[in-house]
Amino acid sequence: MKLGMSGVLAHSYKSSAQQARVVTEAWGEENLYCPGCDSEHLTPSAPNREAIDYTCPRCQELFQLKSRSTALAAKILDAAYDSMQRAIVRGQTPNLFALHYDRFQWEVLNLMVVPRFAYSLSAIEKRKPLASTAQRANWVGCNILVGNIPPDARISVVRDGVVTDARLVRERYARLRPLENIKHDARGWTLDVLNVVRALNKVEFTLQDVYAFAAQLEKLHPGNRHVLDKIRQQLQVLRDLGFVEFLGSGRYRCV
């Protein structure tokens, strides 16, 4: 993977947004690979195909590229809220590449990929409608809340200018793939509890440690009145998926 971009492509455009789009998408066409299979390149989508920028020619995985010249923030601007919500429920979200680049040197600084099956409804935030005077009056967009996605699913491809070995990226992606077989509502709980476990920042933890986040989880899932039962259930799911090990007597170890 080359970190340098073809900044010369920007010379034909006056708008900084257009310059960024042309340069980053061209870089992606030349350098992005599929983390879900062994394909070493992705095929650009047809122009104006909403939310989809690339397709894997081998396994047909879909990808979206979000780029910014400032550090990757806690929120990533995304598409229409209703559309994103439906995509999560139907399991139709694309994989997300989030790119941070140097606008002056046209170089990649950081890049992460979020697998399509690692989204939950708690990971998107409804934005305020656009003003009635806007071109898309009353349109409602959404933000992707990066902090509500477990660290396991924020797979680093480039970190601080250092490229991660593609084999390791694919191993991390494959480890999360069993989540694909869990229905969206149950998967949301699994991802949210996994996020809590990672937030503990402990190798070993107790059931009570996770119970301390019950109010936060209840806020994310307001329709559930049995949060503690759900926490125990999801720790069993995480055990079966190989993320945690049960030590007995309410004690667990991160794997």
Task: Write out key terms for the chains shown.
255 residues, alpha+beta, PvuII Endonuclease, Chain A, Arc Repressor Mutant, subunit A, 2 domains, three-stranded antiparallel beta sheet, globular
Write a structural description.
There is one protein chain. Helices cover 32% and strands 24% of the residues. Strand 5 and strand 6 form a beta hairpin. Helix 4 packs across helix 7. The chain is α+β, with helices and mostly antiparallel strands and 255 residues long. The strands form three sheets. It has a seven-stranded mixed sheet with strand order 1-2-3-5-6-9-10. Strands 4-8-7 form a three-stranded antiparallel sheet. The protein is built from seven helices and 13 strands. The two termini are 30 Å apart. The model has no long low-confidence stretch (mean pLDDT 94).
Task: Write the SSE topology.
Elements: H1 16-31, E1 43-44, E2 54-55, E3 62-68, E4 75-80, H2 81-90, E5 95-102, E6 107-114, E7 124-126, E8 141-145, E9 155-159, E10 162-163, H3 166-176, H4 184-200, E11 204-206, H5 207-211, H6 214-220, H7 227-241, E12 244-248, E13 251-254
Parallel strand pairs: 3-5
Antiparallel strand pairs: 1-2, 2-3, 4-8, 5-6, 6-9, 7-8, 9-10, 11-13, 12-13
Helix pairs in contact: 4-7
Helical coverage, percent range: 25-40%
In CATH, the homologous superfamily of the largest domain goes by the name: Dam replacing family, catalytic PD-(D/E)XK domain
**Strand-pairing-aware structural class:** alpha+beta
The low-confidence parts are: none
CATH topology of the largest domain: PvuII Endonuclease, Chain A
Mean pLDDT: 94
Q: How large, in whole angstroms, is the Cα Rg?
A: 19 Å
Strand content: 15-25%
Assigned CATH class of the largest domain: Alpha Beta
Number of helices: 7
Annotated CATH architecture of the largest domain: 3-Layer(aba) Sandwich
**For the report, how would you describe the main beta sheet?**
7 strands, mixed
Widest beta sheet: strand line-up? 1-2-3-5-6-9-10
Q: How many β strands by DSSP?
A: 13
